[in-house]
């Protein structure tokens, strides 16, 4: 289907979440399902985060500088939307398998595969045969999956009345022998229970849940055998019931052990209470029930609606007036659970129990107001994840407040007896009267014998505490859905250099979210740099920027690094960065001066140019740099203190403009490529010879010098390219590591990423030195690589091997032993080799690397004894460039990138420990899928001949993969070439690739940090212009597309772009409490106020409005908001081109809106058509946005509901009920031209020329045509098959006109 459609934006709304041992038993991960995407996160705990920033208070949640974050480790694309997600340990290796259900009745059991760093399918189950469907034509039931708490089985409810039971294979051999675990099936044969054939005749199942504390798996079913609805509760109420089945998996019998009828009709879900309390909580819309098999039920009413809706015995919960419809709940302890209501309010519910573990009351504590939650998941102690498909998902940290101790003594016993006589006690918030029967643990009683003999009431004194919690936001996952309506418009900020671009530069604006999570999402497909200035410098082939640090400022460098880390860790992703991590002007100035680039080195074909970059950019005439020869490479050494410049035949070491050392290299060919990882510099010649230069402390002075060595590499095949890598992740190791405790990834957080000089000093064992220079730079030969003779742990069992395969997510973010250094070498025969530096021991080898295998596995064991010199691989593609970089949080995620011919390969490293005794790297590389295309389009013969001339004159290959750091707080790799791309990996952990085609081909790139261009970058375009640019910071690039979310705090429904005024018209609605009743007659319609008590939950009604927004600041333009009447719903909003006599073209853009007023089935619906014009006026002083006003031109009621409208040949087309009208707009009034009766309900209408395409929600699409000669609308064609069409559009393909109808599955008509 890629010929017709392609998913360009992956789903971002979280619908399901689970916290499990995804990778191994040593670490727990958060798994979230976003429609067809499965994403795995881990919790990062940054103990040393002390970022400065003003605290925010959003809906009662205190937003502080974050200490904890979610890091995305993996993401998987599935072939269907996940309907339910559960986890269970099945393989016996400590990992949890995931049970994923899909429509209509499909189930997949998948697990993480440590050998391929991917998902593997354990089993697939299909229950869609006709016998199970039982004649069901359309399935409206969601396949719910539940797992037994003891992991004995799982069940899936299909078609609302069939229960599929999947027993788990819990053989003891599974844990002992991993090999046998793979041979045996983790799931035994399943069987189906027909619930309608039970004694209780279970129908219309509402929810299912396993219970805790039973010998056999016990499943509780909440169902409604005879349905009712709120309009019929006077005749039929308390229609829900529950039944508990004991599942005997061996005999496949399921007796009913517990049943209860007469539950309130509005029971919505059940929550199994963990041990030692047990039982189940039933969440109804207006009440809360606790049921247990051994004790009488206990329930409370949450509002006064229960007085007329149920006869179930309920006690009023004083001080509480809420409803639990659409609520989400999870337990954070055995007697406490967190409730997230449909309005986003967070309540901590404490079950108050007595000495017999019986629930005697509930305590509600409103903790905060948060996002509208669709999934809630308890993580590590103190953390909570709120998944939402209506807003950004949040990671919350909850902490206990100061406990309110309530003590009671003997005189209060009389009060308790009085309450028992009158009725059950009611719990007030922090009420002193509740302390007598509040939760008390037997282990906390000072005199247990007195409790056992006489009971709690006869004790001399009792005390109890109700623990309250405070919540704070730690992190958020951006969500741009659900996208209700979208439009395209012009961006407000675009550099003058790109104004005359041939391709239109547009941005996509969508309506996102609902209620208080409503927002506008501004999406851009590409990155548009903000150009500061441009220089014409023709003939430049490459460039580098270098930093010059004074030696005496080394004491302040550590502080600057700390501030830099604090800034990165203290920022929120997306638009939540505003206001956090703000620094004073003095701190910013100090940072700019400390890390600014001092020199810009430009390389030409036969010379070099050195520019000094300060407040002004000037050329250096006399310096230690070489300007008579082209420059191959330039960079920084010695913690940015020294500068190294590599020419084709020599290497220079400089400190500032002063040359310290000049090393002429007498080689048979010129140097073509260099790679630097402080303190090592690798150079390679055109013949393939490799030289290593190491920065060492001078024994006779206080400075450093370069030491030249020639490594003894095997001459198997010519070396094509190489790179060096400094590993801070600790993943590049030769020893196998076992996972011991789950605290491993969170305890070892304190050490920061060490600077190069500090790591070098640690490696030289100079920790006891007092001299600062000696500690920073060392005084002997650095020893930074691990010894290649380290042997792995002997007698490594297969179980240990399996555990070691998944150590990638559990490694600390920093390596305690200091960084290690490595070199990646690609040869002509297709071998990729990784050597340790500086001793050049072969640690990793891959055959046929240019063939782009999915997983790169170390094959050094077999190739160590095989001679590969005689083999030539002439058919293999050529590797032009390779780069191994550490990205992400503290550079702990190694990525291997390579350009093979005209393709870009990206691999991510993951730990993979084997039982081999060979001391080689215990890792593998997994291929990362991406959409980056760098291959240039095919040219004609004339263009190809013209392009060959300059290409042949430049023999040296210019690097296309450019690593950058802290470009507008982002780090990653820039891909040069005809189609330049940015590759970002922030602390979130996801790899994001964004194209930058706005300036054409980019020949070279370099980061540039200057006072006049803070955290910017430089690049040369195809015309030879040097652009000094910065990355726009109003967008978040840590997303599939660059995005900016504009919070509205209300629900956006429609948006359209007015081209003439360059503004957006947005229709929004906000919920308002509505306590009125319509009294409708034949002549008059009026409101009547309804009198209700204070515990009555008022209904909510949408109040619509329209307002103009400016893309300059994305704020609503003052005095442009127009409120619609009560009960008036806007159904359509469009910009229409209508005929206008006063314009030059004969047409003018207007904003047209349609509305509908729905009362009841006894009164006919009415609607209105609105036509607005955006006019320019004199802006108010200090408010430049007020130059635009919205003017109402037409506002009249129609004979029926107006469901859609559009423009057709300068006329306005409206759909009123079943009829389609065509109007002409003249003198601010609509005059009828033509109409047609379609006998369908039209909810969507689009027009091309005189053809009109309309859509019905059940009868598919119709094609109409307006005949101007006789002013009639005729039916041309229609779809003969019924189809649920939600949207329709024309599609032009060359000379063909096609129709596109959007249903559950897209349909294409031609």
UniProtKB/TrEMBL annotation:
GO molecular function: nucleic acid binding
GO cellular component: nucleoplasm
Organism: Patiria miniata (Bat star)
Stretches assigned to the RSE1/DDB1/CPSF1 C-terminal domain: 1104-1299
Biased composition (Acidic residues): 568-580
UniProt-recorded name of the protein: Cleavage and polyadenylation specificity factor subunit 1
Domain RSE1/DDB1/CPSF1 first beta-propeller as annotated: residue spans: 14-402
Segments of this protein annotated with the region Disordered: 405-434, 552-588, 738-810
């Amino acid at each position: 289907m890629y010929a017709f459609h392609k998913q360009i934006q992956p789903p971002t709304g979280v619908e399901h979440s689970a916290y499990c041992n995804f990778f191994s038993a040593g670490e727990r991960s958060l798994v979230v399902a976003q429609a067809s995407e499965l994403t795995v996160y881990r919790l990062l705990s940054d103990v040393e985060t002390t970022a400065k920033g003003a605290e925010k208070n959003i809906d009662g949640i205190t937003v502080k500088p974050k200490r904890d974050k979610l890091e995305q480790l993996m993401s998987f694309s599935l072939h269907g939307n996940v309907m339910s997600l559960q986890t269970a340990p099945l393989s016996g290796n400590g990992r949890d398998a995931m049970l994923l259900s899909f429509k209509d009745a499909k189930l997949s059991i998948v697990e993480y595969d440590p050998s391929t760093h991917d998902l593997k399918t354990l089993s697939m189950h299909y229950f869609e045969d006709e016998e199970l469907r039982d004649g069901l034509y359309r399935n409206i039931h969601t396949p719910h999956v539940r797992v037994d708490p003891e992991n004995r089985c799982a069940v899936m409810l299909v078609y609302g009345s069939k229960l599929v039971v999947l027993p788990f294979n819990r053989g003891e051999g599974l844990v002992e022998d991993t090999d046998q675990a793979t041979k045996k099936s983790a799931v035994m044969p399943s069987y189906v229970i027909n619930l309608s054939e039970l004694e209780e005749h279970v129908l219309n199942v509402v929810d299912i849940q396993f219970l805790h504390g039973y010998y056999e798996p016990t499943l509780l079913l909440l169902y409604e055998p005879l349905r009712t609805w709120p309009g019929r509760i006077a005749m039929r109420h308390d229609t829900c019931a529950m039944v508990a089945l004991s599942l005997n998996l061996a005999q496949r019998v399921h007796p009913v052990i517990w049943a209860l009828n007469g539950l309130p009709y509005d029971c919505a879900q059940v929550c199994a209470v963990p041990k030692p309390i047990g039982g189940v909580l039933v969440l109804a819309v207006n009440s809360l029930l606790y049921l247990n098999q051994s004790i009488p039920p206990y329930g409370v009413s949450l509002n006064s609606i229960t007085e007329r809706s149920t006869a179930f015995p309920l006690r009023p919960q004083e001080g509480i007036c809420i409803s639990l419809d659409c609520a989400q709940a999870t337990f954070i302890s055995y007697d406490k659970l967190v409730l997230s209501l449909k309005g986003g309010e967070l309540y901590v519910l404490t079950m108050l129990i007595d000495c017999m573990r019986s629930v005697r009351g509930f305590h509600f504590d409103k903790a905060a107001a948060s996002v509208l939650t669709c999934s809630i998941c308890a993580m590590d102690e103190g953390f909570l994840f709120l998944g939402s498909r209506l807003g950004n998902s949040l990671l919350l940290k909850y902490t206990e407040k100061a406990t309110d101790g309530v003590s009671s003594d003997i005189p209060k016993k009389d009060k308790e007896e009085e309450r028992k006589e009158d009725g059950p006690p009611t719990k007030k918030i922090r009420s002193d009267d509740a302390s007598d029967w509040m939760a008390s643990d037997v282990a906390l009683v000072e005199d247990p014998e007195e409790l056992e003999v006489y009971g709690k009431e006869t004790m001399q004194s009792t005390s109890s505490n109700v623990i309250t919690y405070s919540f704070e936001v730690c992190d958020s996952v951006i969500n741009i859905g659900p996208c209700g309506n979208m439009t395209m418009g012009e961006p407000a900020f675009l550099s003058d250099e790109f104004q005359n671009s041939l391709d239109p530069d547009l941005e996509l604006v969508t309506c996102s979210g609902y209620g208080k999570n409503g927002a506008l999402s501004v999406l851009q497909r590409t990155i548009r740099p903000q150009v500061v200035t441009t220089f014409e410098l023709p003939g430049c082939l490459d460039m580098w920027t270098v930093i010059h640090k004074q030696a005496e400022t080394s004491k302040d460098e550590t502080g600057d690094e700390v501030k830099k880390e604090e800034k990165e860790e203290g920022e929120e992703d997306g638009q939540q960065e505003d206001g956090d991590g703000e620094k004073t002007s003095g701190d910013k100035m100090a940072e700019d001066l400390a890390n600014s680039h001092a020199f810009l080195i430009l390389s030409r074909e036969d010379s070099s140019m050195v520019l000094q970059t300060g407040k002004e950019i000037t050329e250096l005439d006399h310096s230690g740099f070489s300007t008579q020869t082209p420059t191959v490479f330039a960079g920084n050494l010695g913690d940015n203190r020294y500068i190294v410049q590599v020419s084709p035949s020599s290497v220079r070491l400089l400190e500032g403009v002063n040359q310290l050392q000049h090393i002429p290299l007498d080689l048979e060919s010129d140097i073509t490529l260099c790679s630097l990882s402080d303190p090592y510099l690798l150079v390679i010649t055109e013949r393939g010879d490799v030289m290593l230069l190491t920065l060492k402390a001078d024994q006779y002075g206080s400075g450093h010098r370069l030491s030249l060595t020639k490594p003894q590499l095997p001459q198997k095949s010519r070396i094509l390219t190489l790179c060096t890598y400094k590993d801070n992740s600790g993943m590049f190791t030769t020893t196998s590591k076992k996972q011991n405790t789950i605290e491993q990834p969170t305890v070892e957080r304190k050490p920061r990423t060490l600077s190069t000089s500090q790591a070098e000093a640690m490696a030289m064992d100079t920790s006891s030195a007092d001299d600062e220079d000696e500690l920073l730079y060392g005084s002997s030969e650095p020893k930074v690589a691990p010894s290649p003779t380290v042997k792995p742990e002997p007698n490594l069992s297969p179980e240990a091997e399996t555990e070691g395969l998944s150590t990638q997510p559990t490694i600390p973010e920093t390596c305690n032993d200091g960084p290690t250094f490595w070199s990646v070498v690609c040869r002509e025969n297709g071998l990729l080799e990784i050597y340790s530096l500086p001793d050049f021991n072969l640690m990793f080898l891959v055959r046929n690397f240019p063939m782009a295998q999915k997983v790169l596995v170390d094959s050094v064991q077999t190739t160590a004894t095989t001679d590969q010199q005689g083999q030539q691989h002439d058919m293999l593609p050529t590797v032009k460039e390779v780069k191994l970089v550490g990205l992400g949080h503290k550079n702990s995620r190694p990525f291997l990138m390579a350009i093979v011919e005209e393709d870009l390969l990206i691999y991510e490293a993951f730990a993979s420990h084997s039982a081999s005794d060979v001391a080689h790297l215990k890792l593998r590389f997994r291929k990362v899928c991406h959409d980056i295309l760098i291959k240039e389009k095919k040219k004609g013969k004339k263009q190809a001949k013209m392009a060959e001339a300059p290409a042949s004159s430049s023999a040296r290959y210019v690097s296309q993969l450019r690593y950058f750091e802290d470009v507008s707080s982002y780090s990653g790799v820039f891909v040069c070439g005809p189609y330049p791309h940015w590759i970002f990996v922030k602390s979130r952990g996801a790899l994001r690739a964004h194209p930058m085609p706005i300036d054409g081909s980019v020949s070279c790139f370099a980061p540039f940090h200057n006072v006049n261009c803070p955290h910017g970058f430089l690049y040369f375009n195809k015309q030879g212009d040097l652009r000094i640019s910065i990355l726009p910071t109003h967008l978040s690039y840590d997303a599939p597309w660059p995005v900016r979310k504009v919070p509205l705090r209300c629900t956006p429904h429609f948006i359209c772009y007015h081209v003439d005024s360059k503004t957006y018209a947005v229709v929004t609605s906000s919920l308002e409490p509505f306590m009125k009743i319509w009294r409708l007659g034949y002549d008059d319609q009026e409101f009547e106020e309804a009198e209700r008590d204070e515990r009555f939950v008022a209904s909510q009604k949408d109040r619509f409005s329209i307002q103009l927004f400016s893309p300059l600041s994305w704020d609503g333009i003052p005095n442009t908001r127009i409120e619609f009447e009560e009960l008036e719903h806007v159904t359509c909003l469009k910009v229409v081109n209508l005929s206008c006599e006063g314009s030059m073209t004969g047409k003018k853009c207007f904003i047209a809106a349609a509305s509908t007023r729905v009362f009841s089935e006894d009164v006919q619906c009415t609607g209105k058509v609105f036509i607005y014009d955006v006019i320019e006026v004199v802006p108010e002083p200090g408010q430049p946005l007020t130059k635009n006003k919205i003017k109402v031109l037409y506002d009249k009621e129609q004979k029926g509901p107006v469901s859609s409208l559009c423009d057709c040949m300068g006329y306005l087309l409206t759909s009123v009920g079943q009829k389609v009208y065509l109007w002409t707009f003249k003198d601010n009034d609509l005059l009828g031209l033509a109409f047609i009766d379609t006998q369908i309900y039209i909810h969507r209408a689009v027009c091309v020329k005189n053809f009109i395409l309309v859509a019905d929600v059940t009868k598919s699409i119709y094609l109409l045509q307006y005949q101007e000669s006789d002013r009639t609308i005729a039916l041309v064609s229609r779809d003969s098959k019924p189809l649920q069409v939600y949207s329709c559009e024309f599609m032009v393909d060359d000379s063909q006109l096609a129709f596109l109808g959007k249903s559950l599955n897209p349909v294409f008509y031609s």
